[in-house]
Amino acid sequence: MSSSGDPTQLDGQALLELQNASAAKIQRYWKALQLRRLEARESFCRTLSTLVQNVDWNCFGPDSDFLRQLLFFFNAKRGEDVDMLCKICDILLLYVRSDGDLVTLFAGGVDSSRVKSVVVYRLRKLAFICLLSTRRGDFESCYLEWSYFVYFIFNCVMFDWASSEIKPIPFHQLLEFAVCLMNPNFQWSCEIVEYLQMKKVNCFFRGVIGALLQSERHTKYLDCSSALSKILTLVASHVGNYSCHCSSVDPRWSFSSQILSIPSLWHNLPDFKKAFCSNGFISNYILEIASCADVLPTDILANHPGQACLLANVLETATWILSEPDFAPESRAEIIGLCTSLLDGFPKITSPIDRTYVDGTIPIDNDANYYLDVDLQRHILTLFQHLVNAAVSGILSIDFSDSAGLSSTELQFVGSISFFLHGMLHSSITDGIMTELVHTTEIVPALWNFIKSCHTNDKWQFFSKYCSQLLPDAPGWLLPLSIFCPMYSHILQFMDIVELKKSERYVSLEDLPSLVFILKEALWELLLTIPLQSSSLQTTCSPLDNKKMLTQVLKSSVMTGLCELLIQLEKWNNMDQFVPPIGFCSTKAISDEFASQALIVGTHEAEIIRLAPFLVPFDTRLEIFQLRLEADHLLMGNSRQYFGSRTLEIRRTNLLKDAFNNISLLSAEDLKGRIQIVFFNEHGMKEAGVDAGGIFREFMNIITQSAFSLESRLFKETADHLLYPNPESKLAHADHLQYFHFLGVLLGKAMYEGITVCLPFTIFFLRKLKQKETFFNDLFSLDPELYRTLVNLKPKNSDDLSYIYFIAPDGKELFPGGARMHVTAHNVTTYMHLVANYQLNCQNRVQTAQFVRGFQQLIPKEWTDMFNEHEFQLLISGSLSLNVEDLQLNTNYSGEYHMDHVVIVMFWNVLRKFSGRDQERFLIYGDDPSRLPLASTCFNQLHLPPYQTEEQMHAKLIQALSSKSGFDLM
């Protein structure tokens, strides 16, 4: 061991001995200190009652030993200390109420700046022990444990050692004095609040409010809520205040994290809500709320996540602010932006709310992270509606008729609302809110007025500046249309024809042409600007890349929404025209090469036809369809040459069965190949003629008329003589499903060969043939009377509906137990849609599926997707009206006939005098002249005899159109 005395030169054993000796010395010193402290405290306590009884104003000055000892020895866990503190608070509150100045009192009458450090220390220490006395421990604690503990304090008692009486803790009194100590007029109020923040005072407030929740039924303890509201208001005023110099607080213990995430905060502290909102505190808390979103307390029940409670409280605050007309518009936009950011960061949840939508579906997601309390989610959904109503009121207050358009402030406000609504519609917490929003708020008409105004006044480029989350060159209409399209589509989906005609609430009938124009022009621009093959989106921290990603996602979403809405509007237009059909076509030029380019996969033309065919004129789409047929015929050309034609022998007396037996044996290649027909008459004799195409055309016409007739019992007719599958077809044919497959093949073959057949189908069946969904309004095409009956149920009350059960018109239950459930005013909409679903989808599901399978053997789905139902019917049957003048101009004559020949003039006169039905039949059979007098069997030419009178010619033509005797007519 070195004798130098330098500890660094000591060996290990000596160093250990030195350390142990030092530790023992410290322990002895500490014990002595604790003993001295205990003795001093006992001495203080012995004179405590005397000190309190003799206390005067001099006891609070900077030289006062009384106050110094009180602050030093005070123990919040000891009842006598708290009792003494309460008496002191009584004295000081009396002083304040007598217009006394606490700062002057604590400064001892001298200049307070000279004794600042002492005064500040004592004021903040006194405020701290006042709050601590209500807690009897540390501020930081679990919310539930804290609330139950404070609840115990509220409802339990404390033993008074001096009087041996039981009395409650004066909770309200302590808070009131703490309010006085944090008076904002004090020049050192920031130091006091900063000290309390350092001591995690917000955790204390969190526990106290939790106790209030537990003791709501004990109203005698709720008088403290007023004092609590006051002190919370004082603390809240120190965040984001430019005149305040408080240090920032750890987000975990911040006001936003600990207080604003408490369930039902504003319900329990309405005075605090009023002060918080009216003073505009929320504007100061935007940054703090954003910083604490990921560190919220997890001390509440699992079904009350902090994110949900914080969102609910912020939504309620925002609603209050937006309802105040004097609140600055810029601040409104900031508040809405805060709600949007909270919504965007909200975790995925599963809702326990058992909602039944009109389509009978319930949203379920087993991968969700949170299960919200039922009442909490309902409360949040209600707050969303209130906030939207408040926001809409602000939008509706804008004068859209002003030719100057909207101001920058108004554009900024609408921009923030638009982003909020977009986030709300795509958040899991708001699942199912669409119906409530469109029916309980005025958001749709407000958005439409805004869209119309911006379009009319050319304001879109200015609005883009207020969509900061998007790229600068993003179209201004992108964000509003991302909200308007799905909402208005939702309305149209559940609106009936009567409501559309009468409703002026959403978009008036007069505005529908303008709406169609705006939507189609926006869609055309998107289709031409969105990359055909987007690269995969990558997560990045770059703000510019985030803007690119959001803009790209929004464009794709809007494009889908525009397509769906325009398809719905086109469907409505077909039922009750408000714009000419050409009005849905884009005004942009369609080049001569459009049809050929549309056949090439990956071109913009192909994408337009795939996504928005209605933008392209019908003639161009018809050309594309014909080019596809020609290309497929060319592809099958080699097969036709290799396999040759197929010859079918058909007995006219057994037409349907022979056709079914023969065609059912053909492969897909045979069906696309050439088929020749040999007819046998009723005598079993082979009919004369060689089929060069005309006989096959006749066969297609007569077999379709026979197979789809009511006599076959495979199809039924509506009151308007429109065809649809017979739900009871199995009673007529044991192999009825094979027959439906055969009928689908027949229709597909007719379209594949360009043969029009007179088969007027119902709209709902045409939709099913295109594999599109059917909705309530499609019931009108099947049963207009049932449709009107169901529509008339809407305005009825529950008493008027008591005789109706959830039973289909044929007596079957719409769901298990439906025969025992009454229809009421609350579930009548569900009943209506269930009936429509049963009639349209359930009754003939298997028949339709087989028909579609047969049809698509020849006509792929993508070939017919570019036509709506009415256009599809034109492909099947041709035009239902005959343009005699057009036919006359395009007719060629041979032999002795010419356009001025007396027989030809007579022929056109007779044709003009035909009834509409006869003109339709002529149009059908005119494409097959073998059905007309002296027609050529092989070459589709009409040999018109030189009739002497118009009457004779009329009779012969009608006879030929009505006859089923084939080529032996003349």
Average pLDDT over all residues: 78
Query: Helices and strands: which structural class?
Result: mainly alpha
Distance between the termini: 142 Å
Annotation, overall tally of beta strands: 8
Envelope shape: elongated
Helix content: 55-70%
Gyration radius, rounded? 43 Å
Number of helix segments?
45
**The biggest beta sheet, please?**
2 strands, antiparallel
Oligomer: single chain
Strand order of the largest sheet: 1-2
Uncertain stretches: 137-168, 217-222, 352-369, 534-541, 927-940, 964-970
Strand content: under 5%
Strand and helix map with partners:
Blueprint: H1 12-46, H2 48-53, H3 65-73, H4 79-97, H5 102-107, H6 116-135, H7 143-155, E1 158-159, E2 166-167, H8 171-181, H9 189-198, H10 201-214, H11 224-236, H12 255-258, H13 265-268, H14 270-278, H15 281-284, H16 286-292, H17 306-322, H18 329-344, E3 349-350, E4 370-371, H19 374-396, H20 408-425, H21 433-440, H22 443-456, H23 460-463, H24 478-494, H25 497-502, H26 512-529, H27 543-575, H28 594-598, H29 604-611, H30 618-643, E5 646-651, H31 655-663, H32 668-672, E6 675-680, H33 694-707, E7 715-717, E8 723-725, H34 736-752, H35 763-769, H36 779-782, H37 784-791, H38 828-842, H39 845-855, H40 861-864, H41 869-877, H42 884-889, H43 902-913, H44 916-926, H45 950-962
Helix pairs in contact: 4-8, 6-8, 6-9, 7-10, 8-11, 11-14, 14-17, 17-18, 17-19, 18-20, 19-20, 19-21, 19-22, 20-24, 21-24, 22-24, 24-27, 26-27, 33-34, 34-39, 43-45
